[in-house]
Specification:
The complex is a heterodimer of chains A (536) and B (443).
Chain A: H1 2-34, H2 41-54, H3 59-67, E1 71-74, E2 79-83, E3 89-91, E4 107-108, H4 113-126, H5 133-146, H6 152-161, H7 165-181, H8 187-200, H9 203-210, H10 218-268, H11 275-296, H12 304-326, H13 335-357, E5 373-376, E6 379-382, H14 383-405, H15 407-417, H16 419-424, H17 429-451, H18 463-476, H19 481-521
Antiparallel strand pairs in A: 1-2, 1-4, 2-3, 5-6
Helix pairs in contact in A: 1-2, 2-3, 2-4, 3-4, 4-5, 5-7, 6-7, 7-8, 8-9, 8-10, 9-10, 10-14, 10-17, 10-18, 10-19, 11-12, 11-13, 11-17, 11-18, 12-17, 14-15, 15-17, 18-19
Chain B: H1 2-43, E1 44-50, H2 58-77, E2 85-91, H3 97-110, E3 115-118, H4 122-135, E4 139-141, E5 154-156, H5 165-173, E6 182-188, H6 191-206, E7 214-219, H7 227-236, E8 243-248, H8 254-263, E9 273-275, H9 280-283, E10 295-298, H10 307-320, H11 329-348, H12 353-359, E11 364-366, E12 372-374, E13 382-383, E14 386-390, E15 396-401, E16 406-407, E17 421-424, E18 430-434, E19 439-440
Parallel strand pairs in B: 1-2, 1-3, 3-4, 4-5, 6-7, 6-8, 8-9, 9-10
Antiparallel strand pairs in B: 10-14, 11-12, 13-16, 14-15, 17-18, 18-19
Helix pairs in contact in B: 2-11, 3-4, 11-12
Classes of the chains: A mainly alpha (536), B alpha/beta (443).
Chain lengths: 536, 443
């Protein structure tokens, strides 16, 4: 009898505790939420820590909404809401839909950078046990950055539960970060932590080791210093690789811009100062194609570049043929007049584009596969640059194939080597000239498509690349595709290795001086072509 | 001799007929001209607008020409000035600095404007200074700049370094700004960033920042390959101390810069970037989602909610016919400058430059953020300072502001060559008075 009553009392007591707990939890989170209605950064900061500590299952949702600018409040109604992407309001604490009209003074809860870091740290602690592995990885990284000691119990629990090796590794690093920055951890634990951080070996690890708190024990400091030296050495090596990568990407841009010029300059000896404007035409074609897609078929946006490439080739190629037929044809053998005429033409083209499209920059978007980056070893590889390198190589290989395996390529090479003989063989040299000029301009148009992804699309776009194109062609040797290839990459890598030491401006100047000196020794460039320029 | 007499004889005979023709046509043309030309000169007051409408600066300056047209139109609807209509005279100096001087001369000597609103880059302002001094006219300069100037003929409605750069650095050093200890000063290579960075470097050193914690980089106009520079910023920021970038990058080089920051994963919570030349207009063409949290320091943001600003934005959208066009700080500067000029002309009773120059100091004009700006004796104005964070929609969230308006200082107290100088055109009648040697004319 007494036993069962005792059990009943115990049950009731337990129930009341439980209810009391949820009640306090609910009231705790309601108190925490009230901070958000004050529209003050300090109050919002207090709200963030209280929401995180409340233990409510809604805490992560509320904090994520706050991070995304979707947490709204009404001072009048003293209520806080979460707004979803469609604009519908939901009660922040209960998650119920809000009926009726939205309050008149509905406003976003504002945050600044300090609060953003606090939210990142809090969310990291809250989502360590999330079902989504990507979220767990982000949470582990966030705790590593924030080093909040309060996240340690959750971290230990997550570490014990974790199956994924990669996430477990980062969790260990996060734990090591907390241990190193907490004053009362044992020295042995700290030494083990230093070792884990040293193995991580990236810039964040270096930053952590350089900012150890002042009271840290001497053996730990010594181990940290050794680790710092090791990491810095590793980073210096990877830095060189990174510079080489940047050089490759710059080289690929130079290659794309210069290869069309190499063809026209090589085959016809025509100095085409309007080459940069062909690049600009290609960039504007991309803009037009993207506009059309945005208007009529928005889901094709990721294919916009694939559509732009042939369009730009045709557009720029036709303009090139037009230029050759109308202007260049009459100026063969007169390089100074060609220079002047094409210079004037470049001004006309720039002003035409300015009149049609306006003088402001035009927005060309990046398709989704060209944004972001990934890490390989110790270097960061950005997707847009990777795609551009692949694209440049593909264009180069395609051109080589064109020259080597097609009839047109054969006729072009014949005209380059010996125009008179080629004419005697029955090749219509004037037609070849026009098509060659069109090909060179078309390639420049394709380059414009690629450049629109990394540079501003404006009427002045071409001006930034004309000098570089001539530099590459002169350095690499006129008319020879391999010369342009090697020249572009050598110049790109040299520029990028000079830039960290000399700065952007001096680096460029140094490259120009080096080219001038090189030309003194080898006036015809790296790979000189044996052939003669077009004679009148 | 004989031929000449024959000619003169012939011309004598024909002169009378020709003379009749000439006289008649002269009368026919001259009367209406005589009637209208002096009348037109009485009827309108001409206002010169000297902003680039083509070239690299067109992106920033075209909107200033448009806002001036709106302000002149609004004033005309109120009845004009001194009983006359205002007439805008627009010229295009095409981002060509020597052409700025030529066009300024044309505006003042040929078109006989009473005042010029114009210029953007400091080099364009420096080019036109000799023209304004020689021909004694008035220039209102609306853009934030490096100071170190106190000309009698120029009124600076844009921010001096102590109204933009110094407060921004103070904010970053505070708790809300992240307690920044390491600094990257990233600028475009010309006079404004070079001078501003000199001032900031001196200021930071005075605040106890060591040389090793300051990195200064310059890049040319239109620079687009930011990989190495951003990588350097990332490396500089991993020394364990909180790092921030103070950006005086100008023009469209900002677009690939911010894109590269986003691509290399540099978030505002890791390394915040505060820019002085990036406003709503420059953000209009960018995907701003990866940039949320990066900062800008200005004296006005379109997102500031005051009745005056709401009315101004509505008037702007009605005038320009495009609800997507943004407003920005230099536009507000022209708004303040134009209204101050109108008030000074009304006070002086004439548009004569000397009298207007004397009447301008002390003029007050309500700005669009709820305060009242005043024209100071050194020809700078008082302005509030706002720090804004970029929002996903390309507008700015104000995260900090000065309590009161800050008076603009012409000469920076942090540079050895200018710390003793003051500009005062009311009492001292000097733009670079040395307070130590008590002489006018600089150090």
């Amino acid at each position: 009898m007494r036993c069962s009553r005792a059990w009943l009392v115990a049950l009731l007591f337990g129930l009341s505790l439980l209810l009391g707990q949820t009640a306090t939890r609910a009231s705790t989170i309601n108190d925490a939420i009230a901070h958000f209605t004050a529209d003050d950064f300090d109050e919002t900061g207090a709200g963030i820590s209280e929401v995180a500590a409340s233990g409510s299952p809604r805490a992560a949702v509320i904090l994520q909404a706050l991070q995304n600018g979707q947490l709204m409040f009404s001072a009048e109604r003293k209520a806080v809401y979460v707004q979803d992407d469609a604009g519908k309001l939901w009660d922040a604490v209960t998650g119920d839909a809000v009926g009726g009209d939205p309050p008149a003074d509905l406003d976003t809860v504002n945050i600044n950078n300090r609060l953003r870091s606090a939210i990142d740290a809090a969310l990291g602690g809250l989502t360590l046990l999330s079902a989504d592995p990507a979220k767990r990885l982000d949470a582990a990284e966030a705790v590593f950055k924030s080093r909040q000691a309060s996240a340690l119990p959750t971290l230990e629990a997550a570490f014990a539960k974790e199956q994924d090796g990669r996430i477990k590794y980062v969790l260990a690093q996060a734990r090591a970060a907390i241990v190193l920055t907490s004053p009362d951890a044992a020295t042995a634990d700290k030494l083990a932590a230093v070792e884990i951080i040293r193995q991580r070996g990236d810039q964040d690890a270096l930053a952590l080791l350089l900012s150890l708190p002042d009271g840290t024990a001497v053996p730990v400091m010594r181990a940290a210093n050794a680790a710092i030296a090791a990491i810095q050495q590793r980073l210096a090596l990877w830095d060189a690789v990174q510079n080489a990568w940047y050089g490759l990407s710059l080289g690929s841009v130079l290659l794309l811009a210069a290869i069309g010029l190499a063809i026209t300059f090589g085959v016809m000896g025509v100095i085409n100062m309007a080459h940069g404007e062909m690049v600009m035409v290609g960039a504007y074609v991309t803009f037009l194609v993207q506009n059309a897609i945005r208007g009529y078929a928005p889901n094709l946006f990721d294919y916009s570049l694939a559509i732009s490439v042939p369009s730009a080739f045709i557009a720029a190629g036709l303009i090139g043929i037009l230029i050759e037929r109308c202007i260049i044809r009459f100026l063969y053998g007169r390089p100074l007049e060609t220079l002047l005429a094409t210079w004037g033409l470049s001004l006309i083209l720039q002003q035409a584009v300015r009149t049609i499209f306006g003088p402001n920059n035009r927005e060309v978007g990046n398709p989704s596969f060209m944004s972001g980056a990934f890490d390989v070893g110790g270097i960061t590889v950005t997707y847009n640059r990777l795609w551009i390198i692949c694209f440049a190589l593909a264009v180069f290989v395609a051109l080589l194939g064109l020259l080597r395996f097609t009839r047109f390529g054969l006729e072009m090479r014949a005209v380059t080597q010996n125009r008179a003989m080629a004419a005697s063989m029955g090749i219509r040299t004037s037609r070849i000239d026009a098509l060659t000029f069109g090909l060179g301009s078309g390639i420049a148009g394709i380059a414009g498509v690629a450049l629109s992804q990394i540079d501003n699309v404006s009427p002045n776009l071409g001006q930034g690349y004309i000098i570089d194109s001539f530099m590459v062609v002169v350095f690499g040797g006129v008319g020879n595709l391999w010369g342009t290839f090697v020249g572009a990459f050598v110049l790109g890598i040299a520029n990028k290795f000079l830039e960290p030491y000399a700065g952007a401006v001096l680096g460029k100047i140094a490259i120009l001086v080096l080219i001038i000196l090189f030309i003194q020794k080898r006036p015809r460039g790296l790979f000189a072509l044996k052939g003669r320029a077009v004679e009148a | 001799m004989s031929s000449s007499s024959k000619n003169s004889h012939r011309s004598n005979a024909t002169i009378s007929r020709r003379g009749l023709l000439v006289g008649a046509s002269g009368l026919a043309l001259g009367l209406p001209l005589a009637a209208t030309v002096p009348a037109r000169a009485d009827e309108t007051i001409k206002i010169g607008i000297l902003h680039s409408l083509s070239g690299t600066m067109a992106i920033s300056e075209t909107t200033l020409k448009d806002v001036m047209l709106m302000l002149i139109d609004a004033q005309n609807k109120k009845g004009g000035l001194l009983g006359k209509k205002l007439e805008p005279v627009v010229v295009d100096p095409a981002s060509n600095w020597p052409l700025f001087a030529e066009k300024a001369r044309e505006l003042i000597s040929k078109d006989k404007v009473s005042v010029v609103f114009g210029c953007w880059t400091s080099v364009s302002r420096k080019s036109v200074l000799p023209v304004f001094k020689e021909l004694d006219s008035i220039l209102f300069y609306p853009v934030q700049f490096e100071g170190e100037e106190g000309e009698r003929n120029v009124f600076y409605t844009g921010a001096a370094p102590n109204q933009q750069a110094i407060p921004a650095v103070d904010y970053l050093m505070s708790a809300d700004g992240g307690l920044v200890k390491r600094w990257v000063l990233e600028g475009t290579d010309y006079v404004y960033p070079r001078t501003t960075n000199k001032i900031l470097e001196a200021y930071l050193k005075q605040k106890g920042v060591v040389d090793a914690d300051i990195m200064i980089n310059y890049t040319p106009f239109g620079f687009s390959d930011w990989q190495t520079e951003v990588s350097k910023i990332k490396a500089f920021g991993s020394a364990g101390k909180k790092t921030a970038v103070v950006s005086t990058i100008n023009g469209d080089a900002n677009v690939p810069f911010y894109k590269e920051l986003g691509n290399q994963g540099i978030k505002a919570t890791d390394i915040p970037v505060v820019a002085f030349s990036v406003g709503e207009e420059e953000l209009a063409g960018l995907d701003t989602k990866p940039l949320v949290g990066h900062l800008a320091a200005w004296n006005y943001f379109e997102s500031i909610k005051t009745p005056a600003n709401t009315a101004f934005i509505k008037e702007w959208h009605d005038f320009i016919g495009n609800p997507k066009r943004t407003t920005n700080d230099p536009m507000e500067a022209h708004y303040i400058g134009f209204n101050m000029w109108v008030k000074a002309v009304q006070k002086a009773g004439t548009t004569d430059p000397d009298k207007v120059i004397s009447a301008l100091p002390g003029t007050k004009q309500a700005n669009l953020s709820g305060g009242v700006s005043e024209m100071l004796p050194n020809h700078y104005i008082t302005k509030p300072v706002f720090i804004g964070e970029i929002r996903p929609d390309g507008q700015f969230n104000v995260v900090w502001k000065t309590k009161d308006l800050v008076p603009g200082a012409a000469w920076s107290p942090y540079l050895p060559g200018s710390k003793d100088l003051v500009a005062d055109w009311v009492n001292l009648k000097c733009g670079n008075y040395n307070t130590v040697t008590k002489t006018c004319g600089g150090t």
